[in-house]
Amino acid sequence: MAYMIDRCPSEDSPRLGAMTLYPVAESVSLSRRWFRKFIAPYNPACSVDDCVLMISELVTNAIVYGQSDEVWRVRVEWFREGASLKVDVHNAGFPARVKLRRPDAVDAHGRGLLLVDSIADSWQCGPSRFGGTVVSFVMADAWPT
Predict the structure, then answer these.
(1) Is 16 exposed, middle or buried (0-12, 13-18, 19+ CB in 10 A)?
(2) Among 57, 62, 123, 134, which residue's Cβ finds the most Cβ atoms within 10 Å?
(3) What's the whole-model pTM score?
(4) How far apart are the first and last CA of the chain?
């Protein structure tokens, strides 16, 4: 597993950190642990627990639905954009496959994006600059302006 962290965000480099994960189940718990560790020095006012939950759901979706004929990784990046925290999760899947579902009470799956939709101030999906798909969420007012 690999990870990278930027210690000195600036206007030219708003990225606070990033991690690259293998598309395996163990990466979900690693993403939670690493994000919690690496965001702590920035002391965001938003709920880190909520962010960890959403990252966990999006990394799980990336692992389950990402696909490629080549070796691929899941990439998670987090940024400070003004007073907001933005988190991107990149995978090798196709943007058209990202759909918000409304599962029945008896459905065992399908609640990941529903959780993101209900917790985040906003979320979106589209083509990733690395190829594949990126799903992003924003937590507004994560830092005082």
Answers:
(1) buried
(2) 62
(3) 0.87
(4) 35
Which tokens sit at 17?
């950190």
What is the per-residue pLDDT for 2?
A: 58
Tokens, residue 8: 């000195």
Is residue 92 within 8 Å of residue 68, measured between CB atoms? Answer: yes
- From residue 79, give the alpha-carbon distance in Å to each of 31, 106, 138, 140: 16, 36, 9, 12
Give the DSSP H/E element, type plus range, for residue 127: strand 122-127
Positions of the chain with pLDDT under 70: 1-13, 95-96, 99-111
Q: Which residues pair with 123 in a beta bridge?
A: 137
- Domains of the chain in sequence order: 2-139 (3.30.565.10)
Of the candidates 78, 75, 84, which has an alpha carbon nearest to the alpha carbon of residue 133? 75
